Amino acid sequence: MEKKPTNPEPNIANPNSNDSPKEPEMENKQTNPEPNVFPDIVNPNDLPKEPEIEKKIAPNNDVNSSSDHKSVNTQNLNNSINSHPKIDHEDKTIHIPSKNHTTSMQIYQPKNQCEPHKNIVLLKTHKTGSSTLQNILYRFGDVRGLSFVLPAVDVYMGNPAYFHPKFVLQTPGGYNILANHARFHKENMARIMPANTKYISILRYPPKQFESMFSYYSFNNRYHTSLEGFASRAQELYDKHEGGNPRHSGLNPVLYDLGLHKNDLATPGKIDDYIKFIEDSFDLILIAEYLKESLILLKELMCWDMEEIVYFSSNKRDNSLVKEIPKQTEKQLLTWHAGDFKLYLHFNRTLHRKIEEYGVQRMQTEVKILNKMIDDLSEDCLQGTKSVSELGGKTVIKRYVLKPNAKNKRTCARMTYPAYDYLMMLKQKQKLRRPGLKRNL
What we know:
The chain is an alpha/beta fold and about 450 residues long. The chain has 15 helices and ten strands. About 35% of the residues lie in helices and about 10% in strands.
């Protein structure tokens, strides 16, 4: 296997410990980008795409919705799919019944040597849909008895420090899946993950991502202003209120999650180098606005079945808290988060190239199948949603309510576990594997 590049940053341990280097104050102030470097784009639908893809694949726009299936142009597809595709378990070919039910269309033929891949790192980024991905990985590993890299305390593994094995709940026998929040440090992650591990992450259109983070983590209390107020005076308020080692950065927060040093968050050359580093270090970067297409590419990468990527959106805010971003504020946030925007543009284009390589028609068909599977599971499992307060009452999110007859169905339960509850269950399972503890299973 080709050796991937190592993290350009040194290992940073827990900032509260004596062996942790202190981050100096930022020397480079955020400045407006050059006029032609970051185009004046205020709508993710207007983002530049590969010419051949733009007319064929429309964004899902369903980061927090599992029921909006209007995102994919299916005019050329059969409109009479009334059941799950039939799978021939001899040749693993999926067939969709045609309109007259006398013929079928082959859409998926896995490689003969393809074996499901079990070792994966999800570098969770804040408010991008990563909790939905986390649930997919939790379920995949849980049903197979795989071993997870779990935080020894809290739900983070070191943040704001870089990931380090000392933050991990120790489990004998090695690990398969890392899917909890941790700032990316490739060398330290490689110390505990198998050599053939796949690395993935997810991005979201920066103004939408930051609005969600601003609301969820009550940034109005940190910066003493509204989202619009912050956007209009971002440099001033960031310098005044950010602090030395934030868990959630007010400048280019996704690059920060991905491991870019705080002092480099406003330096264009460092940002360019780090985007290249991320490209070389990760096997797939998903895009929230194209979540279903991204998941199908993940399925292909991991040699998984379609059922592995079926999802209900996790950690969705109550609709009353979702704020419409004024156009002027959106433009200001794109300027302020120029690094995150450049990162997003780069991997948005990369995703569309991957879709083109995968086959646009094939992708449209598989998205339609995924939508149908989500609809069927929703009908089977879900009675509705309820609003639940989080973070000490600072925010309100939606939780799923299962139908009475679905509460004992393992798939329904696993797909709707709150992230924290699922984490606690996985911790308990792995503690039972530790030497000296009696199993009572």
